Amino acid sequence: xxxxxRKFDPAEATKFFTARGHSGWLGLTYSDHGDDWVxxxxxxxxxxxxxxxxxxxxxxxxxxLMDMASGMAIWRTMDEFSAIATxxxxxxxxxxxxxxxxxxxxxxxxxxTRSAAFVxxxxxDGDAExxxxxxxxxxxxxxxxxxxxxxx
Amino acid sequence: MAEPTDMDALTPYARxxxxxxxxxxxxxxxxxxxxxxxxxEGRPGHYHGGAxxxxxxxxxxxxxxxxxxxRDRSAVLKPINITVQYLAAGKSQATYAKxxxxxxxxxxxxxxxxxxxxxxxxxxxxxVMNVLMxxxxx
Lengths: 152, 138
Known about the structure:
The complex is a heterodimer.
Chain A: H1 10-17, H2 21-26, E1 29-33, E2 37-42, H3 59-78, E3 84-93, E4 103-112, E5 116-124, E6 133-141
Chain B: H1 12-17, E1 19-24, E2 30-34, H2 49-70, E3 76-86, E4 95-104, E5 108-116, E6 125-134
Antiparallel strand pairs in B: 1-2, 2-4, 3-6, 4-5, 5-6
């Protein structure tokens, strides 16, 4: 958290984005944020299990969690809300999430250009030092940006 | 009898998201379908990237299970990774997906998957995924 007042508040924005739609269906909630990163929480749910016979969260919800956390991290870094679209998203599932545990998705926007936003992040189930997944993604801005800077 | 049933192809997550088996192609490849409704909606009127990704993964697992059953192989499928390319915005209509097995090894499989809406020749998203095939109860 920084002392600087910013326009884009991830905690408030999460309430808005998770009021309905896919994020609302998943039940995503705000967890934490920094200058250029946002962490969201995906609570445990029985109906999001993957392979039959295993008590393991499916990979799909983790992909959705990271996509949403990445978008939030980009808006936080831009400090405004503008339309963006996922261009490319890679998820490495390094271990199964623990049964019954919430999964937290933390994504950081490490580079913002005039037209693209680059993010990386991880998903963990309580200890960020022991992730369940790593991600890397690129988003494109789809709305025309107002101030066009030559080095974007 | 290794005829795959419809439900075998779907995880609880996929069923919950509203994905179902649309049809099988002549070679048995499952074509998965999801209707546009609030559970898949991101930006108003468009698919959430996560929902599209979930459909792609589901089509990948469905084909891999079909192929393993055909070969009388049993395995517990575990995700290794997935890379999704989003090519066009998913509009408010049904989306379909089907996979192709690029390499079926003993311990892992590599698949490519495509999702489309109006025209299979114009995919809205594609994915490459690697899946671990572990020994049952291993």
